[in-house]
Amino acid sequence: MEILRDYKVGIEGVCGGSCDCATCHVVVAPDWAKRLPEPREDEIDALDTLPLIETTSRLSCQIIWSDDLDGLTLTLAEAA
After folding, report:
1. CATH number of the domain residue 10 falls in
2. Which pTM does this prediction carry?
3. Exposed, middle or buried: residue 77 (CB in 10 Å: 0-12, 13-18, 19+)?
């Protein structure tokens, strides 16, 4: 989420990364989604509050950047 904010992509991230608001919802490309760690229960709970999610929906604040993610493809989810 912070990288998206730094590049002024337009991610909201109201809670500042505490996994409480789901305003940093992104949809990760399927080939990349399987490379990410499974979401924790609090992330799943936050995603469950959204009206529309995809099988590869994630909260960008919960994606921890590493060099292995260079080239990560994702789409900003539409605001509800």
Report:
1. 3.10.20.30
2. 0.85
3. buried
